[in-house]
Amino acid sequence: MTRPVVGIIGNTDLLHGSYPAFTGGHMNAEAVSDVAGCMPLLIPPHPNFVSVEELMAACDGFVFTGGRPNVHPEEYGEEETAAHGCFDRCRDAVTLPLIRACVAAGQPIFGICRGFQEINVAMGGTLYPEIRDLPGRMNHRMPPEGTLEEKFALRHPVKLTKGGVFEALLGADEVMTNTLHGQGIKKPGARIVIDGYAPDGTPEAIYVKDAPGFSLAVQWHPEYRAGEDPVSRPLFEAFGKAVYAFAEARRERVSEEA
């Protein structure tokens, strides 16, 4: 049986300082392939090369990955400041309308870090430019030094809503996660339900209320060692099941229309 296709939103980088490239992390592809059981397909985040309609036709679900550039504050009605960091307006132009279209169609989406923030902004929410500058907040950014294992190490608990979507999925009301982000949710978008918080009050787990399909997102990075981590594995397994169900339903519709 052909595996469903999961589009992994890529990032734009300069290789060797000058060669433009679209890139995607090996960990994201591994999690989609080995844990979700789907075929990963890297998506170039540029509206000159892809459209929402083409992407939704080619893929059965999407992972909105992390990335160094932030969502531009104009996308949520605020002025750009130095604290907002760098941006990728081309990725914004692809991901934000794609998220809204997928939510409406019930096409599965899973947001990670920047992808978590994109889902909030796509649904009308806003972001803080720098969490660590807020009173009482911890520094959620990736440690600047150390090995990959040290950078992705579990650093704080996330308290999940009792009886909520994430507690049911993970089988616990508190989990340990890594943390590698600078920005965070300021105001949740319409239909965005915050289902988990860090100890300092930073939102860490969300879903879209009444969405007809899988529409979950986390502020941490579950793709790291997804196959062996007790929190990451059920997230990608549940996403994979949703993608398989969507793909099967689409095949049945096509068969009926033929």
UniProtKB/TrEMBL annotation:
<dbReference type="GO" id="GO:0033969">
    <property type="term" value="F:gamma-glutamyl-gamma-aminobutyrate hydrolase activity"/>
</dbReference>
<keyword id="KW-0808">Transferase</keyword>
<dbReference type="GO" id="GO:0006598">
    <property type="term" value="P:polyamine catabolic process"/>
</dbReference>
<dbReference type="InterPro" id="IPR029062">
    <property type="entry name" value="Class_I_gatase-like"/>
</dbReference>
<dbReference type="GO" id="GO:0016740">
    <property type="term" value="F:transferase activity"/>
</dbReference>
<dbReference type="InterPro" id="IPR011697">
    <property type="entry name" value="Peptidase_C26"/>
</dbReference>
<dbReference type="Pfam" id="PF07722">
    <property type="entry name" value="Peptidase_C26"/>
</dbReference>
<protein>
    <recommendedName>
        <fullName>gamma-glutamyl-gamma-aminobutyrate hydrolase</fullName>
        <ecNumber>3.5.1.94</ecNumber>
    </recommendedName>
</protein>
<comment type="function">
    <text>Involved in the breakdown of putrescine via hydrolysis of the gamma-glutamyl linkage of gamma-glutamyl-gamma-aminobutyrate.</text>
</comment>
<dbReference type="GO" id="GO:0005829">
    <property type="term" value="C:cytosol"/>
</dbReference>
<dbReference type="InterPro" id="IPR044668">
    <property type="entry name" value="PuuD-like"/>
</dbReference>
<keyword id="KW-0315">Glutamine amidotransferase</keyword>
<comment type="similarity">
    <text>Belongs to the peptidase C26 family.</text>
</comment>
<comment type="pathway">
    <text>Amine and polyamine degradation; putrescine degradation; 4-aminobutanoate from putrescine: step 4/4.</text>
</comment>
